[in-house]
Amino acid sequence: MNTFGRLLRLTTFGESHGTALGGVLDGFPAGFAIDESAIELALRHRQGGQSTLTTSRREPDRVRFLSGIYEGRTLGTPIAFIIENTDTRSQDYSALSELYRPGHADFTYQAKYGHRDARGGGRASARETVVRVVAGALCAQWLRAEGIHIAAYLSQVGTVLYEEGLYRSSIHLTHEDEALLHLRYEQVVPCPDKATADRMAQAVAEARDRHDSLGGIISCRVDGLPTGLGEPLYDKLSSRLASAMMSINATRGFEIGDGFTLASGQGSTCNDPFRPTPSGEIEQTTNHCGGLLGGISTGAPLFFRTAFKPTSSIGLPQMLCGEDHSLHEYTITGRHDPCVALRAVPIVEAMTALTLMDFYLLHRAHQSGAWR
User: Which of 219, 238, 272, 275 has its CA at a distance of 20 to 30 angstroms from the CA of residue 227?
Assistant: First the structure.
């Protein structure tokens, strides 16, 4: 399937070294004013070639909208767009057309389809995520207009950890903490704390110099969510978020709130009580659940983490199996990220925005009685 969403649906197309990649975003409400500079900024956050810590492939990533937007406003019709590929070096992959790289989708695509595009991983390449970032940037603008703010950041690279307890558990952030979170993209890598960001960058540089790679974890906090987003039982917000994050290349794990830590906890210390507020509302006092109960948003901040494996393409000799069952010692060349998690932060934000806007529209449909 190349389509994500229910009321708001994104369909993507294209390969890593094809002419272009593109998408069709259907179901976006009409009359919304689009800030194209915000889309360009999200694309720059994902873009490679901006430092020695990422791939040297530098695509301009200029998005061209084909439909759905007129005079700066959405029409309510499908928003179609393309991003051309201009910095491909397909010759780097010519020797891999009959070899299966360890950790890649080469073997599984060949087994499933009987024919594959070996250039840069084809459709399985993380290059495809540029489309998600465009669509997610559109959704993030709409959500911000509703008072919903999404912020993802690196919380671990290799063995370097960011002490993120405040963002994980706090119901209300101070202005200082909010400002620190918003500065994440101004660091050498997208982590709110400069000292930790510098140590993460050093770890990636050392792995790169060894011709090796590192994995990482991206945390995401969403503030301003209303209560009631989620469709039980089989389309919970937690379920769709997990699906969205696990659809991103190189993801290997997902947890909401305190996640796997709760398995060693106790109900007496891990439950999230509620209390009345002076304004007459009800809110949680703690947030072990990450803002979701029964797969439905509680109104507390949404918090989750996604784990990314080390980049599979490394510059060390490895044994590769050929289509003819032969074995070859081979060193993969080309341009690859020593840590894919560094550039995946805006992708996590994009998939979060797509998921939440879809559920927000579903929630409005229920409230209006359109689904009764």
Answer: 219
The average confidence (pLDDT) of the chain is 92
Alpha helices in 12-51 (DSSP H): 36-46
Half-sphere exposure of 119 (CA within 13 A, CB side): 12
Distance CA 293, CA 304 (A): 14
In DSSP terms, 3 is beta-bridged to 11
In single-letter form, the type of residue at position 105 comes to A
Q: Would the pLDDT of 256 be above 90?
A: yes
DSSP 137: H
Measured CA to CA, the distance from residue 92 to residue 335 in angstroms comes to: 9
Alpha-carbon Rg for the chain in angstroms:
21
Element (H, E) at 22: strand 20-26
pLDDT-derived band of residue 170, with 50, 70 and 90 as boundaries?
Answer: confident
> What SS3 string covers 144-208?
HHCCCEEEEEEEEECCEECCCHHHHHCCCCCHHHHHHHHCHHHCCCCCCCHHHHHHHHHHHHHHH
Domain boundaries, the chain: 3-368
Beta bridge partners of 163: none
Task: Return the pLDDT at 89.
Answer: 67
Give the list of residues 6+ apart from residue 294 with CB closer than 8 angstroms, or none.
230, 232, 236
Chain-centre distance of CA 157, in angstroms?
Answer: 16
Q: Are 303 and 245 in contact (CB under 8 A)?
A: no
Report how far residue 58's alpha carbon sits from residue 73's, in angstroms, rounded to the nearest whole number. 30
**Torsion angle defined by CA atoms of residues 28, 30, 32 and 33, in that order, rounded to the nearest 10 degrees:** 110
Query: Cα(10)–Cα(302) distance, rounded to whole angstroms?
Result: 23
CB 17 within 8 A of CB 120: yes
Class of domain 3-368: alpha beta
pLDDT in tens, 64-98: 999 999 999 999 999 999 999 986 665 666 677 78
* Other CB atoms within 10 A of residue 277 CB: 9
∠ CA 156-220-197, nearest 5°, is: 35
Reply yes or no on whether the pLDDT at 372 is more than 60.
Answer: no
